[in-house]
């Protein structure tokens, strides 16, 4: 490929065929829907596609407690009555029900994320995509918020073997508490989460003052937001903050959790992002040219989740796709408009005032200044690779305005809404 | 946004009975049609600041300090706003904007809605003043649990310890890395083959699939048309299989094609196609019964794995049969609404009716003319009191406000303000006395209702918000609010006119007898004015709301808690003129020292603190024309102010109790030298007498 970027995509044909139970908003089927769109848009053939291996309990225990994983492995809807003690202990029940194939499901999505990390480590790809992963609430000892096994933590642990500093970015509407908690004391992972905070919104953590402790102090960044945030407001926070984070922290690898419940019209969410606005974050992160693991996450209005992740797959492949959806076997799901970018905005007020946003940004950036520049690992120097050298040159200028190629794209507001102009060079190759 | 359109999740003002009262603020959780066809709103309630018990409030204020200090300790950049920076007036107004979230859900009729507002979580970074400039905006930072009467922070914890954090592996330098083991199966490699070649191969695969379907045994899939066969062969499963085949054959089209027709055409069928009609029928039957795939599998389709049933379900949803079912369900679901349009007849929420004082009925008549002019409220051109809140003397419309016998009024603007924010624009004494004077606020009613409904338990909380609500089993008893009568000049005057005996009679049979004053039914206005003028002179510092605002300095409450009290002899029932003259010459007879209980937080900022302070700083604070001043907080204090005849009544605590034993609102009287001297002078006998009948004058 002319861009020289290699993209690996992980999908297990079984992953969509699980069901959390009647009335449960989490629907693994959204993954099948996404995959069908990816195939029929012709994106499938532009990347390396893998059928991931399934994570073993040994892999899961890299982070999780053994008895918890053992419980997940053994519990089924049929024998659940024998586990009453464990259910409350491991917070399995209402939000995180025991459904048929629970362990298989965990094993599939965790295996894919882990494999993505392995591929990034070995340098056999630059971007790894696993829409099935991104279950950021799961804790070491318990399930939480529809998440059982924290595939993100397990993948990051794998990345940490070869990467001195890993940056985790979370644009799910819910706070990425599981990942933040797992790496709360270390400076080798910086977690940045943009989320709705307040009104007893799940999970209740993610205040701006949760910055990490001990060695990890200032390595947890939280951006609490209020209802109804729109594209422009989100953009005005996301870009400068991520720019500053990358500049100060100099990650050698990024993990991006793309929870799609921050879109407007989400069944559980209350933000007002459009699919393009959501994708803009992915685009921005991609521009740093740092190896990136892209994961899914929340997203409870299934048709829009599929649209969003398909669009983001295309963005990561630098490929333009038509607004008109191709015919797929799930075509009826996208009625009545059958387009990739329907109007998903809701008519609610944006409660994030200009002033509020400015203050949040200012505080977060000020906190970043307290960081020692790119903390070193106890080991020697960072392996000299081309990517990080490019980066340091690129990021030497002002905080807000990315230099080089990025500048054009960020500063031009119209670019935000039209299809990218800097991608055409790709299309010539195949045809 | 459409006017009058209400959606789930929006915050609204709710009318509560009996109006007029400050609105109940709540958030719409559900909208549904009831059996009678009218719409009901299930809404989560917010509590106003003044609806919280004082003990809980002080806890809230203490918390905010702790948070601030923690952040300072943590060394986090706090750019921020602080409550201290506000002026008193702003502080007063900001308190009207603070709410407390609760999990209490109440059901209202939709026609009780009185408008929209917004309630957001306060961020420490925000300048709180932004809430003041925009209408209908509120903030909250804590969650109130009315069942156990405590506050929780709307905030979770990140836990620290070996049970929570991951073990970070050491960094492996490049030279000692091992070859990674790749376990995933690659199924597609890009750029091996031009796109159009891939497309061509897919067409071949589909054709083979169609041919395979045509060859199918007729008994298995009867009457399959060529067209349907082609459609079936175009489904994703055929395409995926074709691409897999291509990859396995290293992108060699010839080899891959022969792989698709090993001994005849390969047929890839997904769940939708593979299921027989009989199976489909059983599935639909099961689904109608229960949307539980495990259940359906057990009862109807034991030979199918749950996975296949799930896959089938999602494909079946694209068929016409599902559309029919969906329509049925839609009809059932019609009663759950997502939004509703309410047309408000009076958008400001103003209630017309008996409370509306505009028009002739109110401006003419004898009673207003008899009203004693109070000290601070300016009068309108026609001699009536101005607005209690903004002191305006002109308004488009006037509203009765407060206890009926007080004849207070609010202008239309302040009335709306009061209904929305539950307070007056200026911090007046009314604000302080209002809630105790029997004007029950909306949320107090709510609390009562809650107590009544107690057996039903607290609203069920979703796991998505993992905080616990503990229900208390026994119902809470609302303690009776103690109050006492503080005679206004007017009352005093009336009393004199009535004479002792008829007063006694009234006191004994308060409901049965009409009061017939002994003297002329209409006391001469002149006499009344003289009487009042005399009393006013007696008050050394006439109270104005402006001066209150300036005294509302909480710093002084805490830094100089010891205040001298001026104790005057109580008015003697002689002629008003004489009494007034005597009162003005009053000397300090005895002095008590007031020690406010040491509250642990330095940010007592509620109206209670203001009141306490007010009472302690101006000994002559006499609420004009208010017959009922019931604050339990300052009860003892007020009595002390009244006269020396009964200071001992409250002297029960010899030593100042520790803050822990003191209730948050309690006061105690600490005797100092002067008091003891006065006591000694009085002697034990008269002291006991005074204690028993505190209303009587002590004779030396």
UniProtKB/TrEMBL annotation, chain A:
<keyword id="KW-0805">Transcription regulation</keyword>
<keyword id="KW-0158">Chromosome</keyword>
<keyword id="KW-0963">Cytoplasm</keyword>
<comment type="similarity">
    <text>Belongs to the histone deacetylase family. HD Type 1 subfamily.</text>
</comment>
<dbReference type="GO" id="GO:0005829">
    <property type="term" value="C:cytosol"/>
</dbReference>
<keyword id="KW-0678">Repressor</keyword>
<keyword id="KW-0479">Metal-binding</keyword>
<dbReference type="InterPro" id="IPR023801">
    <property type="entry name" value="His_deacetylse_dom"/>
</dbReference>
<feature type="compositionally biased region" description="Basic and acidic residues">
    <location>
        <begin position="405"/>
        <end position="414"/>
    </location>
</feature>
<dbReference type="GO" id="GO:0141221">
    <property type="term" value="F:histone deacetylase activity, hydrolytic mechanism"/>
</dbReference>
<feature type="domain" description="Histone deacetylase">
    <location>
        <begin position="24"/>
        <end position="315"/>
    </location>
</feature>
<dbReference type="GO" id="GO:0040029">
    <property type="term" value="P:epigenetic regulation of gene expression"/>
</dbReference>
<dbReference type="InterPro" id="IPR037138">
    <property type="entry name" value="His_deacetylse_dom_sf"/>
</dbReference>
<dbReference type="InterPro" id="IPR023696">
    <property type="entry name" value="Ureohydrolase_dom_sf"/>
</dbReference>
<keyword id="KW-0090">Biological rhythms</keyword>
<feature type="compositionally biased region" description="Basic and acidic residues">
    <location>
        <begin position="421"/>
        <end position="431"/>
    </location>
</feature>
<feature type="binding site">
    <location>
        <position position="300"/>
    </location>
    <ligand>
        <name>substrate</name>
    </ligand>
</feature>
<feature type="binding site">
    <location>
        <position position="145"/>
    </location>
    <ligand>
        <name>substrate</name>
    </ligand>
</feature>
<dbReference type="GO" id="GO:0046872">
    <property type="term" value="F:metal ion binding"/>
</dbReference>
<keyword id="KW-0804">Transcription</keyword>
<feature type="binding site">
    <location>
        <position position="95"/>
    </location>
    <ligand>
        <name>substrate</name>
    </ligand>
</feature>
<dbReference type="GO" id="GO:0005694">
    <property type="term" value="C:chromosome"/>
</dbReference>
UniProtKB/TrEMBL annotation, chain B:
<dbReference type="GO" id="GO:0003714">
    <property type="term" value="F:transcription corepressor activity"/>
</dbReference>
<feature type="region of interest" description="Disordered">
    <location>
        <begin position="448"/>
        <end position="476"/>
    </location>
</feature>
<dbReference type="InterPro" id="IPR000679">
    <property type="entry name" value="Znf_GATA"/>
</dbReference>
<protein>
    <submittedName>
        <fullName>Metastasis-associated protein MTA3</fullName>
    </submittedName>
</protein>
<dbReference type="GO" id="GO:0043565">
    <property type="term" value="F:sequence-specific DNA binding"/>
</dbReference>
<dbReference type="InterPro" id="IPR043151">
    <property type="entry name" value="BAH_sf"/>
</dbReference>
<feature type="domain" description="SANT">
    <location>
        <begin position="270"/>
        <end position="321"/>
    </location>
</feature>
<dbReference type="GO" id="GO:0003682">
    <property type="term" value="F:chromatin binding"/>
</dbReference>
<dbReference type="GO" id="GO:0003713">
    <property type="term" value="F:transcription coactivator activity"/>
</dbReference>
<keyword id="KW-0597">Phosphoprotein</keyword>
<feature type="region of interest" description="Disordered">
    <location>
        <begin position="611"/>
        <end position="700"/>
    </location>
</feature>
<keyword id="KW-0238">DNA-binding</keyword>
<dbReference type="GO" id="GO:0000122">
    <property type="term" value="P:negative regulation of transcription by RNA polymerase II"/>
</dbReference>
<dbReference type="Pfam" id="PF01448">
    <property type="entry name" value="ELM2"/>
</dbReference>
<feature type="domain" description="BAH">
    <location>
        <begin position="4"/>
        <end position="155"/>
    </location>
</feature>
<keyword id="KW-0539">Nucleus</keyword>
<feature type="domain" description="ELM2">
    <location>
        <begin position="156"/>
        <end position="264"/>
    </location>
</feature>
<keyword id="KW-0862">Zinc</keyword>
<feature type="compositionally biased region" description="Basic residues">
    <location>
        <begin position="461"/>
        <end position="471"/>
    </location>
</feature>
<comment type="similarity">
    <text>Belongs to the metastasis-associated protein family.</text>
</comment>
<keyword id="KW-0479">Metal-binding</keyword>
<feature type="compositionally biased region" description="Basic and acidic residues">
    <location>
        <begin position="641"/>
        <end position="651"/>
    </location>
</feature>
């Amino acid at each position: 490929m002319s861009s020289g970027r290699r993209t690996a995509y992980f999908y297990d044909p079984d992953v969509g065929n699980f069901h959390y139970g009647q009335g449960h908003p989490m629907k693994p089927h959204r993954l099948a829907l996404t995959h069908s769109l990816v195939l029929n848009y012709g994106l499938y053939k532009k990347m390396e596609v893998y059928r991931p291996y399934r994570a073993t309990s040994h892999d899961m225990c890299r982070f999780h407690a053994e008895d918890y994983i053992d419980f997940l492995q053994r519990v089924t809807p049929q024998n659940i009555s024998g586990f009453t003690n464990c259910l409350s202990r491991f917070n399995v029940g209402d939000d995180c029900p025991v459904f048929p194939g629970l362990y298989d499901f965990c094993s599939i999505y965790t295996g894919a994320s882990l494999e993505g990390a392995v591929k990034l480590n070995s340098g056999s790809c630059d971007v790894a995509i696993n829409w099935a992963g991104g279950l950021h609430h799961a804790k070491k000892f318990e399930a939480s918020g529809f998440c059982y096994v924290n595939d993100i933590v397990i993948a990051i642990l794998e990345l940490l073997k070869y990467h001195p500093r890993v940056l985790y970015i979370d644009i799910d509407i819910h706070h990425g508490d599981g990942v933040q908690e797992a790496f709360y004391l270390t400076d080798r992972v910086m977690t940045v989460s943009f989320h709705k905070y307040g009104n007893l919104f799940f999970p209740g953590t993610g205040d701006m003052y949760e910055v990490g402790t001990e060695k990890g102090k200032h390595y947890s960044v939280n951006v609490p937001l209020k209802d109804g945030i729109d594209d422009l407001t989100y953009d005005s926070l996301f870009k400068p903050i991520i720019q500053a984070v990358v500049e100060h922290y100099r990650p050698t690898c990024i993990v991006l959790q793309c929870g799609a419940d921050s879109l407007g019209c989400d069944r559980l969410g209350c933000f007002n992002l459009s699919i393009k606005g959501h994708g803009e974050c992915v685009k921005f992160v991609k521009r740093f040219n740092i190896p990136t693991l892209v994961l899914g996450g929340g997203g409870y209005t299934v048709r829009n989740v599929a649209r969003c992740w398909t669009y983001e797959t295309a963005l990561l492949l630098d490929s333009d796709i038509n607004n008109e959806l191709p015919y797929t076997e799930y075509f009826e799901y996208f009625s009545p408009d059958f387009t990739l970018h329907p109007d998903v905005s809701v008519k609610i007020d944006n409660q994030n005032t200009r002033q509020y946003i400015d203050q949040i940004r200012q505080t977060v950036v000020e906190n970043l200044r307290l960081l020692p520049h790119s903390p070193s690992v106890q080991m020697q120097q960072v392996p000299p690779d081309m990517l990080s050298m490019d980066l340091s040159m690129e990021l030497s200028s002002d905080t807000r305005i990315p230099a080089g190629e990025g500048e054009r794209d960020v500063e031009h507001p119209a670019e935000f809404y039209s299809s990218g102009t800097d991608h055409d060079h790709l299309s010539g190759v195949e045809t | 946004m459409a006017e009058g359109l209400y959606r789930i999740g929006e915050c609204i003002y709710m009318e509560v009975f009996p109006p007029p009262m400050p609105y109940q603020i709540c958030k719409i959780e559900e909208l549904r049609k009831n059996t009678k066809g009218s719409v009901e709103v299930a809404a989560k309630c917010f509590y106003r600041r003044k609806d919280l018990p004082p003990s809980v409030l002080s806890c809230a204020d203490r918390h905010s300090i702790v948070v601030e200090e923690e952040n300072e300790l943590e060394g986090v950049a706090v750019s921020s706003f602080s409550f201290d920076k506000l002026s008193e007036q702003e502080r007063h107004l900001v308190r009207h904007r603070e709410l407390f979230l609760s999990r209490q859900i109440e059901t209202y009729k939709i026609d009780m809605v009185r408008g929209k507002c917004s309630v957001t979580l306060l961020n420490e970074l925000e300048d709180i003043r932004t809430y003041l400039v925009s209408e209908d905006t509120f903030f909250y930072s804590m969650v109130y649990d009315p069942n156990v009467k405590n506050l929780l922070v709307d905030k979770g914890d990140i836990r620290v310890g070996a049970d929570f954090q991951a073990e970070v592996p050491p960094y492996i330098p490049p030279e000692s890395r091992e070859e990674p083991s790749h376990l995933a199966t690659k199924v597609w490699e890009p750029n091996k083959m031009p796109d159009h070649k891939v497309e061509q191969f897919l067409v071949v695969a589909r054709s083979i699939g169609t041919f395979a379907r045509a060859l199918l045994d007729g008994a298995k899939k009867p009457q399959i048309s060529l067209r349907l066969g082609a459609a079936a062969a175009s489904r994703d499963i055929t395409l995926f299989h074709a691409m897999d085949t291509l990859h396995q054959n290293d992108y060699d089209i010839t080899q891959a094609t022969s792989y698709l027709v090993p001994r005849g055409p390969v047929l890839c069928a997904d769940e939708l196609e593979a299921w027989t009609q009989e199976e489909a029928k059983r599935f639909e039957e099961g689904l109608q019964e229960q949307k539980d795939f495990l259940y359906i599998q057990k009862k109807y389709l034991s030979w199918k794995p749950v996975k296949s049933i799930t896959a089938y379900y999602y494909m079946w949803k694209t068929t016409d049969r599902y559309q029919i079912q969906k329509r049925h369900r839609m009809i059932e679901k019609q009663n759950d609404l997502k939004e509703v349009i309410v047309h408000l007849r009076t958008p400001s929420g103003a209630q017309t009716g008996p409370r509306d004082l505009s028009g002739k009925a109110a401006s003419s008549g004898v009673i207003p003319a008899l009203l004693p002019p109070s000290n601070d409220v300016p009068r309108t051109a026609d001699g009536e009191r101005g607005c209690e809140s903004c002191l305006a003397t002109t308004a488009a419309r006037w509203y009765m406000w407060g206890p009926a016998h007080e004849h207070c009024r609010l202008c239309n603007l302040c009335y709306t303000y009061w209904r929305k924010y539950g307070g007056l624009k200026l911090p007046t004494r009314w604000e302080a006395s209002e809630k105790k004077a029997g004007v029950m606020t909306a949320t107090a009613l709510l609390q009562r209702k809650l107590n009544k409904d107690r057996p039903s338990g607290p609203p069920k909380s979703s796991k998505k918000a993992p905080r616990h609500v503990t229900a208390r089993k026994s119902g809470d008893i609302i303690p009776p609010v103690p109050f006492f009568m503080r005679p206004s000049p007017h009352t005093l005057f009336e009393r004199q006119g009535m004479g002792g005996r008829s007063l006694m009679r009234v006191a004994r049979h308060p409901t049965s007898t009409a009061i017939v004053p002994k003297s002329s039914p209409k006391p001469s206005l002149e006499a009344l004015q003289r009487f009042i003028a005399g009393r006013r002179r007696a008050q050394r510092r006439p109270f104005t709301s402006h001066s209150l605002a300036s005294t509302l300095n909480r710093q002084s409450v805490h830094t100089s808690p010891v205040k001298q009290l001026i104790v005057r002899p109580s008015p003697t029932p002689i002629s008003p003129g004489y009494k007034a003259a005597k009162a003005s010459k009053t000397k300090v007879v005895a002095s008590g020292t007031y020690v406010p209980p040491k509250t642990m937080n330095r940010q007592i900022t509620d109206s209670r603190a203001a009141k306490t302070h007010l009472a302690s700083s101006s000994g002559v604070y006499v609420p004009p024309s208010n017959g009922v001043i019931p604050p339990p907080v300052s009860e003892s204090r007020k009595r002390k102010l009244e006269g020396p005849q009964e200071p001992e009544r409250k002297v029960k605590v010899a030593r100042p109790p520790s803050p822990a034993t003191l209730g948050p609102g309690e006061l105690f009287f600490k005797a100092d030298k002067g008091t003891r001297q006065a006591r000694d002078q009085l002697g034990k006998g008269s002291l006991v007498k005074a204690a028993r009948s505190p209303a009587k004058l002590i004779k030396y």
